[in-house]
Amino acid sequence: MTAIATRPEAPGDEDAIDALTRAAFHHMPLSDGSEAETVRRLRADGDLPLSLVAVNMDEAIIGHVAFSPVSIGDDTPHWFAMGPVSVIPLRQRAGIGSRLIESGLLQLRRMGAKGCVVLGDPDYYHRFGFRHDPTLTYPGPPPEYFQRLVFAGRTPHGVVRYAKAFG
Ligand SMILES: CC(C)(COP(=O)(O)OP(=O)(O)OC[C@H]1O[C@@H](n2cnc3c(N)ncnc32)[C@H](O)[C@@H]1OP(=O)(O)O)[C@@H](O)C(=O)NCCC(=O)NCCS
Fold first, then answer.
1. 7 CA to middle of ligand 1, Å?
2. Residue nearest to atom 37 of ligand 1 (CA)
3. How far does the centroid of ligand 1 lie from the alpha carbon of residue 160, in Å?
4. pLDDT the model gives residue 2
5. Measured distance CA(147)–CA(142) in Å, rounded
6. Does residue 84 have a cis bond before it (omega within 30 degrees)?
7. CA nearest ligand 1 atom 46, residue
8. Where are the domains of the chain?
9. Which homologous superfamily does the CATH classification assign to the domain defined by 5-166?
10. Distance 74 CA to ligand 1 centre (A)
11. Is the pTM of this model over 0.90?
């Protein structure tokens, strides 16, 4: 596999992240095509405390993961949502998404986060430690697709609300 590296997004990366996100979600059956715009809005709203890109040896951006703050019904602070996560179609299933997610979760912990939620396929996100908890809910999608990972402190309960960029 070609060498890749991860780094925080930098000024000037916005259009490449946008294009990558559109390409990654283009053929996804559950996508409504809004993911790239969501990332832009998170950034504009100041709700993108952690945004990592994966770059190849030519410094081209081939993967991206966003983390944004969430609020929880019981007011547990310092929790975040992971996503969207994107890898360019030609390089999917080569470990890039896993590398981005592991690196992002590690940095999130270092930033003092107490935990993270994700909405997605449990078959994929279980490998990073995410688990469904029926007491922490997100209305709409099948419940088992909403999962959480506790870093520290108490396990929160209640309804989770994403940043307003998610609509
Ligand atoms: C999901 C995504 C980020 C994963 O990145 P990746 O680099 O392709 O994944 P990795 O190489 O790290 O992991 C590959 C493993 O994940 C599995 N996998 C990849 N995408 C998956 C998905 N959507 N659902 C379930 N499993 C998935 C593969 O089967 C493979 O499993 P294996 O290790 O048992 O063989 C990437 O495929 C992508 O951009 N998909 C389109 C956008 C998307 O669905 N994003 C996630 C929702 S926010």
1. 20
2. 92
3. 24
4. 62
5. 11
6. yes
7. 85
8. 5-166
9. Gcn5-related N-acetyltransferase (GNAT) (3.40.630.30)
10. 32
11. yes
